[in-house]
């Protein structure tokens, strides 16, 4: 849809009527919006538009389109024209260029390279608690800033705020030197695609985490992660557009991509530090860029090892396998949510230990998962069980709240109790193996660092926020808004992803080899 006149047409991969419309009316008819995924595109620049105008015109238009889609109106064309002709904030006169770029295989362009509208004026400082009491607390609150929502990007913001408040992870990126990409070849035709190996998610994440650690340079109310989002659009098509996405899927992509990129970088200048006393304690966190080294800061912090045990029910033969993990996805035991309608809210409370017990309990494999027994020389009925062979320094627990039910993905909106302090993982750790690393009970105690919460009923809708502890104070991050909350407020939320830090991690950090 043309954002100047409301003309609705097909993209260039159909019959290209939207492009022809832009070429016919050259003045101010270059910017259009995809009414399905709500992405904005500029034909003049041949690029996606990521940020918004100073008066949030694009967000206003997206909200109007969402309401029209939700209402299911059959008169969509007339409604779109009303949106364009109504007194909405102006968009056509606020275009400028930037060097950011993304690729696309959507109908809006073959190789758009991403420009943005003129940067909006920053809002006032992020939300803070009035009458904070002490000057020190006020200074601390000023350093904690939010992230702008670029259009349903709360899933990304909640993950970034959680990662930024995991000290060992953010410290690494704050000391990481800038990574320079290779010189790009000029485009001569649309068939020449940019080499995705030249794209560094690591570099854009480093910039965001550094800005968050500096509090937006002390004068910005919220940081805009546009460049990081552009790079993610480029390398992962599923995150393009402005639909809501799953925060856990984004977290897994981000960690996997960071690990891969850090392994691919072969050389980098050696990090020099002047404050040796402060940095010697974290010397293990400094980057290593050898291709022969299979570990990275991702596996150093989040990496653990599972041991799966499969036992044949006929001959009793047992097979063991070790697998690395970056997070644990935990099912909610069925008896908690299947009886939800018959129980009051207090009786329906599940504990995180119930989810962990369900993860590690013995289960009999179904007929479709029969195990090939090397002793019986055929597929047999068997049981399977998981143990945690090696715990990570930061334990990430993903609660599987979404289930497929009659072709619909529904949410289990059940309250799950979790400890703020002293999560003891000893009972879930394999501690009788000769190669089990540091399985003593005192080493298995964790304290909560961050929580991601999903608000709403469905995975493709709703809103994500996060809680994280910053300088000993719990903060609630809701996109650009940041405010101090109590530990009781955190404990009362309904978690989707939990980040726990090993209590002895600071004194015993070591680089695991998976």
From TrEMBL:
Spans annotated as Disordered: 71-133
Pfam families: UCH, zf-UBP
Annotated keywords: Hydrolase, Metal-binding, Protease, Thiol protease, Ubl conjugation pathway, Zinc, Zinc-finger
Domain UBP-type: 1-68
Top-level EC class: hydrolase
Biased composition (Low complexity): 73-106
One GO BP annotation of this record: protein deubiquitination
Entry's EC annotation: 3.4.19.12
Domain USP: residue ranges: 145-503
Domain of life assignment: Eukaryota
InterPro entries according to UniProt: Papain-like_cys_pep_sf (IPR038765), Peptidase_C19_UCH (IPR001394), Ub_carboxyl-term_hydrolase (IPR050185), USP (IPR028889), USP_CS (IPR018200), Znf_RING/FYVE/PHD (IPR013083), Znf_UBP (IPR001607)
Catalytic activity: Thiol-dependent hydrolysis of ester, thioester, amide, peptide and isopeptide bonds formed by the C-terminal Gly of ubiquitin (a 76-residue protein attached to proteins as an intracellular targeting signal)
GO terms, molecular function: cysteine-type deubiquitinase activity; zinc ion binding
Record family assignment: Belongs to the peptidase C19 family.
Protein's recorded name: Ubiquitin carboxyl-terminal hydrolase
Organism lineage: Eukaryota, Metazoa, Ecdysozoa, Arthropoda, Hexapoda
The encoding gene: CSON000907
């Amino acid at each position: 849809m043309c954002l100047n006149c409301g003309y609705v047409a097909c993209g260039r991969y159909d019959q290209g009527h939207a492009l022809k419309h832009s070429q016919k009316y050259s003045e101010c008819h270059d910017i259009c919006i995809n009414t399905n995924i709500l992405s904005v595109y500029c034909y003049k620049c041949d690029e996606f538009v990521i940020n918004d105008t100073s008066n949030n015109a694009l967000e206003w238009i997206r909200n109007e389109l969402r309401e029209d889609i939700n209402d299911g109106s059959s008169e969509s064309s007339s409604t779109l024209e009303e949106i364009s002709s109504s007194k909405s904030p102006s968009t056509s006169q606020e275009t400028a260029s930037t060097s950011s770029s993304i690729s696309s295989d959507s109908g809006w362009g073959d190789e758009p390279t991403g420009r943005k509208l003129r940067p909006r004026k920053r809002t006032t400082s992020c939300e803070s608690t009035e009458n904070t009491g002490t000057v020190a607390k006020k200074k601390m609150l000023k350093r904690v800033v939010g992230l702008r929502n670029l259009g349903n990007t709360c899933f990304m913001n909640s993950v970034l705020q959680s990662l930024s408040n995991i000290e060992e992870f953010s410290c690494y990126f704050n000391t990481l030197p800038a990574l320079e990409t290779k010189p790009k070849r000029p485009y001569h035709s649309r068939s020449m695609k940019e080499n995705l190996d030249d794209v560094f998610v690591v570099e854009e994440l480093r910039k965001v985490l550094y800005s968050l650690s500096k509090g937006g340079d002390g004068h910005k109310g919220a940081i805009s992660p546009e460049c990081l989002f552009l790079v993610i659009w480029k390398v992962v098509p599923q995150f393009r557009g402005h639909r809501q996405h799953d925060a856990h899927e984004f977290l897994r992509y981000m960690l996997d991509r960071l690990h891969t990129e850090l392994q691919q970088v072969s050389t980098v200048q050696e990090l020099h530090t002047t404050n040796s006393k402060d940095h010697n304690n974290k010397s293990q966190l400094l980057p290593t860029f050898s291709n022969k080294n299979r570990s990275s800061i991702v596996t150093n912090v989040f990496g653990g090892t599972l041991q799966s045990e499969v036992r044949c029910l006929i001959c009793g033969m047992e097979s063991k396998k070790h697998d690395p993990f970056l997070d644990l996805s935990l099912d909610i035991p069925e008896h908690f949510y299947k009886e939800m309608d018959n129980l009051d809210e207090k009786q329906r409370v599940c504990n995180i230990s119930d989810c962990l017990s369900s993860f590690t309990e013995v289960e009999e494999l179904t007929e479709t998962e029969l195990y090939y027994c090397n002793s019986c020389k055929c597929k047999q009925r068997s049981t399977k069980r998981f143990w945690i062979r090696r715990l990570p320094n930061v334990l990430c627990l993903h609660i599987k709240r979404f289930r497929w039910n009659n072709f619909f993905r529904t949410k289990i909106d059940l309250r799950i109790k979790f400890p703020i302090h002293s999560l003891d993982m000893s009972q879930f750790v394999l501690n009788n193996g000769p190669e089990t690393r540091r399985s003593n009970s005192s080493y298995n105690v964790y304290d909560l660092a961050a929580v991601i919460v999903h608000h709403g009923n469905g995975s493709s809708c709703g809103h994500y926020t996060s809680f994280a502890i910053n300088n000993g104070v719990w903060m609630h991050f809701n996109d650009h808004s940041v405010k101090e909350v109590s530990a009781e407020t955190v404990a009362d939320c309904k978690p989707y992803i939990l980040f726990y830090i090993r209590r002895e991690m600071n004194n015993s950090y070591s680089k695991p080899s998976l």
